[in-house]
Amino acid sequence: MKDRFLRKDRLLRQAQAASTNAKRGSAAVFAMTSVALAGSLYVAPKQAYSQSGCPPVPTGIAQHPTMLQSYAKRPPWEVAGVDYAVGVPSSTTLTDWQSLSGPGITVNTSSSPPYVRIDDTNGIVFSGVDFSLHGGAYIYLSNSSNATITNSKFGGANLTKILNGVINTDPNSQGLTVQYCTIDGAGSGAGATLISAAGGGTTTVLYNWLKNFPQHVIEFTQRSEVNYSIVYKYNLIEQGGMHLGAHLNYLQTYNLGSATSADVEYNTSYQTHQAGGGEGYQFENYNTPTSPGGTIANVTFAYNTMIATGGITGSAMSYMVHAGGYQNAGIGHDNYMDTTAAWGPLYPGSFSGWTLSHNYIMTTGAAFP
User: Fold this and answer.
1) Which of 48, 216, 253, 285 could bond 293 through an S-S bridge, CB–CB 3.0 to 4.6 Å?
2) Nearest CA-CA partner of 166 in 122, 204, 130, 217
3) What is the structure's pLDDT at 7?
4) pTM for the full model?
5) What's the gap between Cα 324 and its chain centre?
6) pLDDT for 279
7) What are the residue ranges in the chain where pLDDT is below 50?
8) pLDDT at res. 287
């Protein structure tokens, strides 16, 4: 899978993609079929993954094609949001969220903020839905496991009123997939996160454009003795901690559960000075002498591109990554960072027990640590 993103293979892949798209038709890459129990608005992908094991790259123009041009050393692979587009594919036709209906689904347009709630329904799939219309709505999943939200758009001023999660699952909802979505958290708000997962199982977040979030991108809030896992890859993350007093995190795992694995790879992040401060990715569970938490095992943090810029040292964030020490030890390699407006790449003392290699500061080309 990793070879697919190396620049030396770019021309070959482009030729292969052109051939494949010509055979399928560009819309067919994201072709959908109806799920009978949920009605015409709920559709499941015919082809969730390509033969290589990687999901297909969304169609569209990359958001920031020139963002890495001035650096002394840039990543040698295809970078999300720079060399290929992420978020809702440009060929997608979106449907109004207020038109949704189906088993277990409640659409509340009069609440402040409005929401779509799913109760006691496993395997629900939302595809091609515009949740940003009419000022925006959030999703709440109750006792509804293995939901998939794909090819959908979130945003609007209503999201400044939510308390926790544009997409929010309760402890009885295990497993969640969010892919090919554009989620705009509407900036300053009530300190909310874009995705909040409280249940066990695997939370998978792929090929999304995640931006303007008041506090966190993803937070895990598991109870004691709940096991969960994280797959967080190929996303473009822009501007968080926009609520005064909020604590910035691209990933927060500060809970009582235990992560059996965390795979964080090929993401791009861009951060300038905002109202709240904090760190980028955090691999640390809640542990105190009186309230022992769980652990985070099998961490892979690799091939990520991180930029903190636009001000003096520490003005955009504190440190780029905060690990959890030897008890949450992982592997960190081939990460490229601009730490101009951060205190540094790695939170001091948090990486004991980790294996680190081939990580670089893009402004100078120097390796760290």
Assistant:
1) 285
2) 217
3) 40
4) 0.85
5) 20
6) 92
7) 1-53
8) 63
